[in-house]
Amino acid sequence: MTPSLTPDFSILQLVLHASLPVKFVLALLLGASFMSWWYIFLKMFALKRAIKMTDQFERDFWAGSDLHHLYQKVGKHGAGEMERIFEAGFGEFLKLNRQPGVGNQATLEGAQRAMRAAFQREMDALEAHLPFLATVGSVSPYVGLFGTVWGIMLAFHGLSTVAQATLAQVAPGIAEALVATAMGLFAAIPAVVAYNRYTHDIDRLTTRMESFMEEFSNILQRQAARAA
Amino acid sequence: MNLAFDWHGPEWKSGLLAFAVHLLFFLLLVFGLSWRVEDSAPVEAQIWNSLPTAKPAPALPRRQPRPVEAPQPPPVPRLKPVPETRPAVPVLKQPDIGLQKKRQEELRQQLLQAQQQQARLMAQQAAQEKLALQKQQRQRELKELQALQNLQNNMVSSSLNRDLSAVRQQQAAALANSRLNSLVGKYKQIIADKVRGFVRIPPDIRGNPQAIFQVSVLPTGDVTAVVLQHPSGNPAYDQAVRWAIQAASPLPLPSDPHVASQFQPTMEFSFCPIPQEKMACPSP
User: Fold this and answer.
1) Nearest by CB: B36 against A1, A128, A186
2) Considering chain B, what percentage of its residues have pLDDT values greater than 90?
3) Does residue B279 surpass a pLDDT of 70?
4) Residues of A with CB below 8 A from B26's CB?
5) Is A65 contained in some domain?
6) Quick check: B36 and A30 CB within 8 A?
7) Judging by beta carbons within 10 Å of its beta carbon (0-12, 13-18, 19+), is residue B64 exposed, middle or buried?
8) In a domain, B43, yes or no
9) Most exposed residue of A164, B6, B21, B72, measured as fewest CB within 10 angstroms of its CB?
């Protein structure tokens, strides 16, 4: 504001002149922001791939091709989530079918259990790191606020020792303190947006997989009845 | 847990992308926010200094050779009534004239014979000195004239001022008095309005009887004593007004101590049931 201040009053100088707690908060937030962006991109690629593979497998499955043929094809190229559920369910079904003395109902239940297990494993992998995004989204504004409050406290404490208080004496301290809030918001906003977006995507995938499991159970039941 | 996923490829990719995002953010912060960079106002003052010396300097030496042949004093005094530029220009001119003279000498030595030019320059200097002397004389005369005029003006104005100040003092005193009176009247009205809110006027009142009290007031406005000075003729009414004055304590007093001194320590308080602007109070 006043010309007496150094003209190169840049953000780097602000950060370098900040007090130790503010620096610590800034470093913490930078780390959190980096990790959250990392997970954001990681999840973005994983979910894109999952949705693409699920689309492809559903198309193949409902195209009316032979189940045995599909089972052979699985895993030739990188398998999708739904493919692996199908693989687990159909593999268990075939294994139980081959064993003598296992009834139709027992075979079907075994296949369903195998599919449920595979489904839960896939879901766990898809939902990995999402809680981190949620935590960063909700906590980092408070951490940034803490840094800001601390910085402003120091700025006003320094002001109390001088006889004549001017804006130029507190302004740099407050500016450097506000960098912490900016950093917290920078970390939080993308994390919250990504968390909401990915949660929604995973919910949709879950619904699709659950309905596939039900439908596939019906198909297996029909096959078992025909074989018997 | 992650055995179902091939994290190896995307991990590096997303790490690089995250790094790129942060790099962008910091570039935005460092270069996007130019904090308090402007403030180049003082530089303009230097430009102002250099401009006036550059322009008049080349104009002067060209004009001055002419007065050598035919010195014309009359046009110079006509230029004089601009006294503000006078002190600034000669001080700045002198070094530049010297420089230009040097340049002119060099040029003319190369082009023409040097001696003629030197002679001319001498003549120029002499003419300049003459001009300067004339200017000084004129300025002195002008200053004397101005001083005389100022003296005359001062004499006239001081005599006028004396008369005026007396009149003004009287006017100010009258104004202050009238202001004081109007303020006192205003506050009397305010006090009466406050008391009016507390009065329970007996029903058997006829006309607009006026009761006058001597009210003792503290500087805070608190009423310490109420003494009936002129009874209205109706003791019940007098008593009602007395109670109302006591109930209205503290009375609203003006904050200006000069005005408030009119109400302290005792004030005369007259009250009539109907406000005075609607109906005149008959004096008891």
Assistant:
1) A1
2) 3
3) no
4) 11
5) yes
6) no
7) middle
8) no
9) A164
Q: Which helix (H) or strand (E) holds B271?
A: strand B266-271
**Whether the predicted pLDDT of B194 surpasses 90:** no
Q: Give the model confidence (pLDDT) of A8-63 as tens digits.
A: 556 777 778 778 888 899 999 999 999 999 999 999 999 999 999 999 888 888 88
For A77-112, b/e burial (b = at least 16 CB within 10 A) is: eebbbbbbbbbbbbebbeebbeeeeeebeebbebbb
In a domain, residue A25? The reply is: yes
> How many structural domains does chain A have?
1
Cα–Cα distance, B254 to B274 (Å, whole number): 24
The pLDDT tens digits of the residues spanning B90-134 come to: 444 455 566 777 777 777 777 777 777 777 888 899 889 889 999
CA nearest A5 in B: which residue? Answer: B36
Instruction: Kindly determine whether residue B18 and residue A38, on different chains, have CB atoms separated by under 8 Å.
Output: yes
Q: In this model, does residue A144 exceed pLDDT 90?
A: yes
Candidate from A133-137, A201-205, B13-17, B255-259 with smallest mean pLDDT: B255-259
Q: CB of A30 within 8 Å of any CB in chain B?
A: yes
Smallest Cα distance from B88 to chain A, Å: 30
Verify whether the Cβ–Cβ distance B1 to A121 is below 8 Å. Answer: yes
* Average pLDDT value for residue range A151-159: 85
Scanning the structure block, which residue is given the tokens 């840094």?
Answer: A147
Is residue B54 in a domain?
no
First to last CA, chain B: 108
Q: In what order do the strands lie in the sheet with B223-230?
A: B223-230, B211-217, B266-271
Looking at chain A, which runs of residues are DSSP E strands?
A: none
Provide the residue range defining the domain that includes A134.
11-71+130-219
Give the number of domains in chain B: 1
User: Between the CA of residue B17 and those of A36, B8, B20, what are the distances in Å?
Assistant: 12, 15, 5
Write out residues 86-145 of A within 8 Å (CB-CB) of B.
121-122, 124-125, 128
Cβ of B206 under 8 Å from any chain A Cβ? no
